[in-house]
Queue: 3 jobs
Job 1
Amino acid sequence: MLGGLLLAAIVLYAGGDELFTGSLLMTLVTFAIALLGSFQFVTLAIVLAGVATVTHIGIRIFLSVSQGTGLSGVMFLWLIIPGLTVLGAALYTGGQKKLQTENALLRRQVEELVMIDPLTNLYNLRSMFMDMQTQVSFAERNNQHISLMVIKMKYHDELKRVLKKSQYEQVLIKVSKYVVSTVRLEDRVYAIDDVGSLAIILTTDKAGCKSVVERLNHKLEDPDAFTDISSHPIRVEVKIGYLEYDKKQFKRDAKEFLARVEEECDFDD
């Protein structure tokens, strides 16, 4: 592509005064072709190159015949310069598309491998779905209770507006730490979205879940719970939903189980 522009500039310089106007127009057209190609309008660049080449050569032949003058060899370079420019633009565009595809694939592969939420350092939703199958199997073999709890921030949009980004992130981290400190070591806490929602796989029944809710609310309602984040008082409220796993109802479908628990959570106003 750059080679075509360079060759066009050389032809413009070497063509002399007689061919200057036509060469200048073709140089401008070649620049337009390169610009279109760089923005991935390759088909339009091809059409423009074809029309410009045929028109220019046709006009030069007509003038040569009508004036009885010979055809300059430099003029015939315009038969290949637009085509070379289009070819260069097509190769450049193809390379860019390939690079973008490879980057998107790499980004998707990395996302599939990431199991940790970067803000809270808790395991993420993908990890929760994987662990749920294992935990359910273990509970069934040992005839144990297993429940899923979801905790969502109330008014998170309002908190985002009134707090700095760093302060809002500190709130999310604090909440996650309070949750982790509320449950037992064998219970697993997961960050399931980017607005602070958490999920817990609990090895207990609904009565045990209710006890967890009471302890967590007590911690969050403490007036000093978030005093080190801002000079102004911060009140954080959460919605909590939970269900005990029922094999007949959920049939090992972790996504369905989570969806039902989130419905319970949304009803907790």
Job 2
Amino acid sequence: MRPRTRVAAGALCAALVGPIGGCGGDSLDAEPLALPVIAHPVAATVTDLGYTVTPTAARQVLVDLEFTRGGEAHAGWPGFLSLLVGRAHAHPGHAAGGAVRGELPGRHVVDWMAGGPLGEARVLPGPLDGVDLGLGTAGPEDGLSAGDGLIGANLLIEATVSRGAQVWSLAVAVPQDADRRIYGAPCPATAEDGATLPVALRLTDPVEGDSAFDGVDFEALDPDGDGHIDAAPDSPLVNRLKRAFQTHDHYGLTSEETR
């Protein structure tokens, strides 16, 4: 769990932010804990146009989760430090999203409806405030059948959409760019014996109140009136959701929700 290139990584951290003690607040010699990472079930959202979107299925491929402290919340591709240190050395130490305190490596097909454990992360003891995660593209290597609608996409959402007496069914597969990562999604937690580490997909930004589906007129997307909306690749709806789920606003939990 300790950095594989301890001297090089430590020297880099010291050069950029001061002594090792400043790279997260406590020693990298602490023994890591094995803590379960728990996916919280996704909730319905209400849009600015008055539609209620209630998910009936939601699956997403997450890659290489890293739990951090003290980082700047942003989204993008691996940053300057990641390029210098490399993915192989992104163990507890310093990384672009903050001081990396632990990790859950590998690919994980997350069922956001069921929620539940994704696996055990190895995490240094102490407070955490963020989680960095990659957005992968689903494929047969994820144990999916050939006809699975998630294949070729990062996120598959099926939902019931309603406004007044009108009801539609929705199915939308959302792709993401290769190597896309989210940095600094809120994850207020303390790594200690008996703790769990929460991750979440949010259709509504818990701080600003914006919905990922804001601006979408679902009635206009059903011109034949059959009550079913099946978003085509590169459609405005797919592109809107792709942009929305590239930001940390739609991941993680607030401190009030984890109390």
Job 3
Amino acid sequence: MNWKEPILELYNTSKTLIVSPKQFWESKVEAISLKAVTQYFMLFMVLVGVSAFVGGWIAGSKYGTDYWFLLFKALRDVFQYVVSVYLGCWAIREILAIEADKKNVLKLVVLSSIPAFMTTIITNLFSGVYILELFSLYSFYLMYVGVPYFFEGAKKHHFRFAGVSILIMIVSFVASYYILWNLLKLFYTV
């Protein structure tokens, strides 16, 4: 499989989304396929996992070079995003009781989470730069801007809809972090 094309496409999509989100949402809502969004998500999850493993190995831990701990920590980071994205998609559809296409909800959640994925990769690799996690908050702005382009009913109550969607994503992320961190602690006392 040729990985160069999807990675370059992911780079260009991410750059366009971050630099000019309104123009991106206007032009790309229908243009980006669910397959492309799924590829972006999978590539980011691979990068998150690898960065957690490599960053933990470089920084070391109180367990030394316990590769099992590093592997579990990397898997925890990946599963945290997978669970929070899919839980967030489900909750947005169910709690807001919208008649939205599942594909559109997934597109909105994954594409607006790109800054969070990127900051996680950077902070996993370089410990001590956790202040960069503040850039993850830009994901909320991307979701706020993207909501009216995906859901017709959201245009009327844009602020409420985006606010509830953002709150749902925060709760799903925190819940998945708490559950998966406690599962990791079953194996290791951190």
